[in-house]
Amino acid sequence: MKEPVAIQTQNLTKKYGKIVALDSLNLAIQYGEIFGLLGPNGAGKTTAISMLCTINTPTSGSALVNGFDIIKQPDKVRRSIGIVFQDPSIDDRLTGRENMQLHATLYDVTPPQARKRIKELLELVGLADRADSPMKTYSGGMKRRLELARGLLHHPNVLFLDEPTLGLDPQTRQHLWSHIEELAKQEKITVILTTHYMEEAERLCTRIGIIDFGKIRVVDTPTNLINTLKGDVLTVVCNRPQEFIDKINELKLAERVESVDGSIRLSIAEAEKMVPVVVDLAASHNIEIKSVSIHKPTLNDVFLYFTGREIREEEAENQLKTHMRAMGRLR
Ligand SMILES: Nc1ncnc2c1ncn2[C@@H]1O[C@H](COP(=O)(O)OP(=O)(O)OP(=O)(O)O)[C@@H](O)[C@H]1O
Ligand SMILES: [Mg+2]
């Protein structure tokens, strides 16, 4: 018999006119995983999870969440999942506890059960002492923690988090990661999150799916993904990059050579030993080297490898601006 899986999608596709926001997603996520969809702005992350949450309908394809069909059994799907979405949906005038109580009513959790559960969850996310303050007095991080707790109120076994730490400062972001890890462990839930923070994906996720232009490029554990890049990354900045790339390729000096924003990135085993070779090669062709650096491959390099481009911090910034505009905080 096949093991039950938390999520199974089959050619899940969403089109908006000519835009293919999600292109034939085939994915199986096991119970107990923290699965990350990692991709730049517009990659299709929100589209993918909003369909799994039944907020959005697929153009074609299908999916099972907790064994329920997202098209034929949307109510059952919704009752069995928790959602924390990119756009906050909390009422600022209510206190943290009141917001939780409201959610309990929506999900038919009985008052005694709700009281107990709310207390336990508020403690878990470190908000017990602020539970009775209006949420407009909460910081961004506190609001996000409350949303996390609220998403778990009705004991879902799958939790969807869309960009859980967007707009939070690095320290608060790390705090929230610990909470997510703790919740996943204590509540024994499967977590599906979207992010474009490499560090977030690497720290939290048991597996990562890299998504770009609506297509999943690769799915694996963070370690396996990084190990697919053999050797170190040697970055060279020089005055005639294309010519130098040709010379490097002629001599087959590297496993892989890429040009990124005017710099050259080489994947090379034992890169330290290759530095003099690279420098000599440049000198022999009168190519002027401006800098050379070496680093161990990171998830960012993996992303670059599978998509041919980097997710940059400014993308995160842009995303935040769009988000704030949508919330009416920025013009
Ligand atoms: N309601 C909509 N109507 C038209 N196009 C849409 C709609 N929602 C999303 N799209 C398009 O679908 C693509 C995927 O969008 P999606 O929101 O899923 O990306 P994302 O990976 O979540 O990006 P971000 O990191 O910015 O949140 C984009 O090209 C987007 O413009
Ligand atoms: Mg999104």
Strand and helix map with partners:
Layout: E1 7-16, E2 19-29, E3 34-38, H1 45-52, E4 60-65, E5 68-69, H2 74-79, E6 81-84, H3 96-106, H4 111-124, H5 140-151, E7 158-162, H6 170-186, E8 190-195, H7 198-204, E9 207-212, E10 215-220, H8 222-227, E11 232-238, H9 241-250, E12 256-260, E13 263-268, H10 271-284, E14 289-295, H11 299-307, H12 313-326
Helix pairs in contact: 3-4, 3-5, 5-6
This protein binds adenosine-5'-triphosphate and magnesium ion.
The site of magnesium ion has 4 residues, from helix 1.
List keywords for this structure.
about 325 residues; alpha/beta; Rossmann fold; Alpha-Beta Plaits; 6-stranded mixed beta sheet; 4-stranded antiparallel beta sheet; 14 strands; disordered C terminus
SS field, number of helical segments: 12
CATH topology-level fold name of the largest domain: Rossmann fold
CATH superfamily of the largest domain: P-loop containing nucleotide triphosphate hydrolases
Strand content: 25-35%
SSE series: EEEHEEHEHHHEHEHEEHEHEEHEHH
Sheet with the most strands: spatial strand order: 6-7-8-3-9-10
Number of self-contained structural domains: 2
- Small molecules (ligands, ions, cofactors) in the structure: adenosine-5'-triphosphate, magnesium ion
CATH architecture of the largest domain: 3-Layer(aba) Sandwich
CATH class of the largest domain: Alpha Beta
Number of DSSP strands? 14
Mean pLDDT: 88
Helix content: 25-40%
Q: How would you describe this protein?
A:
- This protein has 2 domains: 7-225, P-loop containing nucleotide triphosphate hydrolases (Rossmann fold), CATH 3.40.50.300; 230-296, 2-Layer Sandwich (Alpha-Beta Plaits), CATH 3.30.70.
- It contains 12 helices and 14 strands.
- The protein has helices at 45-52, 74-79, 96-106, 111-124, 140-151, 170-186, 198-204, 222-227, 241-250, 271-284, 299-307, 313-326, and strands spanning 7-16, 19-29, 34-38, 60-65, 68-69, 81-84, 158-162, 190-195, 207-212, 215-220, 232-238, 256-260, 263-268, 289-295.
- A hairpin with a 2-residue loop joins strand 1 and strand 2 (19-29).
- Helix 3 crosses helix 4, helix 3 (96-106) packs parallel to helix 5 (140-151) and helix 5 packs parallel to helix 6 (170-186).
- The termini are far apart.
- Mean pLDDT is 88; it is low at 327-331.
- Magnesium ion binds next to helix 1.
